[in-house]
Inverse folding.
């Protein structure tokens, strides 16, 4: 049914830490690996070994540069997948009911047996989260690894989305963003998590955490006297502190 | 946006067929018991051709019946439902006309209303997309309706001439209206950018607090589905010329031909000029409509381009 539910019991989603992400693309590969063999049609590639390679991915990592008037440019690695929006425009435009948002956990899914491959949902999505599998002729999108998170046949530690499980930097977090006491909700509140393109009114469930302010930048201290020792000087306490002070006095 | 030939053919051909139906249902066109129903069949064939073309770009067209189920939320589904309802009613209208020798006024008026609604639904498939700010205005349905009725006027006038009648000059107003709508859409769209709609690389990434944001590296070296489908930039440099061609050859020239060819004797021209002139008008109009519709897609910018540093 392509009417969006007015509200969902839970709001499962991802929180992506742009401060921590190192841009290694492990989540991209892990996502592709799991989902090409999991739920629905495989994520086909065309010309996989030559020029003009083309394939469907559910998660891609962009790299942006942000620069203000004075400071140095800052590079931000930016993973992007379906944000499982509360007001998902991709769901309501679907003519067949293939695209739907689940009442129980808010995951946006495609019933591939009902998808005619018209592509209108991909046009309606602001985030580029949906890609057509041109071989199967159906729309593919992030399922939040719905075939992992409830899967009792795999160890409990693996019952999280593949991208989250694999991230070596711990930059991806999974949980219920509808529960304000959940780890992910606390993380979002603490770190000032934000929505992508809030002006389009999609109300994304997934949140992004901003890069933390950089520690003292050398540019800010160029007019201070330079002291290598000061940079390396830890505060010493206890016996070593006493020894340090005693030696200073000699 | 990628201007898929199947979608352009769909919107132009079905628009023309629906435009004809709106006019015929209202009482325009040949009135005879043979010429009338034949004109109806031509309109049905054009609409059917358009709807058939719309299935060419589908990944799984065999499941098209499901597309009639989601009319409560989806304009694409509504378009399908209304089109099929219209074609059924209009076929009945044509069949009864051939059977009884006279058109049924109520069925005609229902057809007219459904035809206008069908064109509106077609336009709203695009007009509903907030992700393409240029389309997301009331000018989109206005332009589609103008185009459908403008084409319908020429096609119905051609049928009139072939049936030995003179089309009423007043219907030419639809061509003027179509030109005005086309101009209004273009003028409105020209003022709409992703930025004026409130979207930018900063809003897309949420990194505005750090300064100006630009793409450093795309996620992949080759174009993907998103770029092919939504960041189509080929031919935009010819946009102004194409737009001019679309209006001059697609609307003004056909209007001139319509005025002269609907009544060639009045201008001292041989009677043969009637069908020839209106056929030429129809061809020119179709060419212009195809160019205009191609531009409608090719010039439209999708917000997803912001993630790729491209528009």
């Amino acid at each position: 049914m392509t009417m969006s539910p007015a509200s969902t019991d839970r709001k499962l989603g991802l929180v992506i830490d742009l401060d921590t992400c190192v841009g290694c693309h492990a989540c991209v590969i892990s996502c592709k690996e799991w989902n090409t063999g999991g739920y629905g049609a495989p994520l086909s590639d065309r010309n996989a070994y030559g020029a003009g390679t083309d394939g469907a991915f559910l998660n891609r990592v962009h790299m942006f540069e942000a620069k203000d008037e004075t400071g140095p440019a800052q590079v931000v690695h930016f993973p992007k997948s379906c944000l499982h929006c509360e007001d998902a425009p991709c769901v309501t435009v679907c003519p067949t009911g293939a695209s739907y948002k689940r009442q129980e956990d808010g995951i946006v899914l495609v019933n591939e047996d009902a998808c005619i491959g018209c592509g209108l949902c991909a046009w309606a999505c602001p985030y580029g989260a949906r890609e057509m599998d041109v071989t199967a002729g159906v729309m593919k999108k992030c399922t939040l690894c719905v075939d992992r998170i409830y899967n009792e046949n795999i160890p409990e530690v693996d019952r999280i989305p593949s991208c989250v499980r694999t991230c070596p930097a711990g930059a991806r977090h999974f949980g219920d963003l509808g529960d304000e006491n959940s780890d992910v909700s606390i993380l979002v509140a603490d770190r000032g998590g934000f929505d992508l393109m809030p002006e389009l009114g999609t109300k994304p469930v997934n949140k992004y955490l901003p890069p933390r302010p950089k520690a003292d930048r050398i540019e800010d201290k160029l007019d201070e006297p330079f002291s290598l020792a000061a940079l390396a000087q830890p505060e010493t306490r206890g016996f070593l502190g006493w020894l340090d002070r005693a030696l200073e006095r000699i | 946006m990628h201007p898929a030939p199947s979608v352009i053919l769909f919107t132009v051909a079905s628009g023309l067929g629906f435009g004809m139906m709106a006019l015929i249902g209202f009482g325009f066109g040949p009135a005879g018991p043979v010429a009338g129903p034949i004109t109806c069949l031509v309109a049905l064939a054009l609409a059917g051709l358009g709807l058939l073309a719309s299935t060419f770009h589908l990944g799984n067209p065999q499941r098209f019946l499901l597309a009639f189920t989601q009319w409560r939320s989806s304009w694409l589904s509504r378009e399908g439902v209304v089109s099929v309802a219209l074609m059924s009613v209009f076929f009945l209208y044509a069949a009864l006309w051939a059977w009884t020798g006279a058109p049924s006024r109520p069925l005609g008026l229902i057809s007219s209303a459904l035809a206008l609604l069908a064109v509106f639904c077609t336009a709203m498939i695009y007009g509903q997309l907030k992700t393409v700010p240029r389309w997301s205005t009331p000018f989109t349905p206005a332009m589609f309706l103008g185009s459908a009725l403008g084409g319908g006027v020429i096609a119905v006038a051609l049928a009139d001439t072939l049936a030995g009648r003179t089309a009423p000059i007043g219907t030419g107003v639809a061509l003027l209206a179509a030109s005005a709508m086309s101009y209004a859409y273009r003028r409105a769209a020209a003022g709409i950018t992703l930025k004026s709609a409130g979207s930018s690389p900063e809003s897309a990434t949420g990194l505005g607090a750090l300064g100006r944001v630009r793409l450093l590296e795309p996620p992949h070296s080759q174009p993907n589905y998103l770029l092919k489908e939504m960041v189509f930039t080929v031919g935009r440099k010819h946009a102004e010329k194409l737009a001019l061609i679309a209006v001059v050859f697609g609307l003004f020239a056909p209007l001139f031909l319509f005025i002269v060819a609907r009544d060639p004797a009045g201008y001292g021209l041989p009677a043969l000029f009637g069908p020839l002139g209106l056929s030429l008008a129809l061809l020119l109009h179709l060419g212009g409509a195809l160019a205009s519709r191609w531009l409608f897609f090719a010039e439209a910018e999708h917000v997803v381009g912001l993630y790729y540093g491209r528009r």
In short: Chain A touches chain B through 70 residues (CB under 8 Å). The helical segments of chain A are 26-37, 89-92, 120-124, 146-149, 162-166, 183-191, 228-232, 238-249.
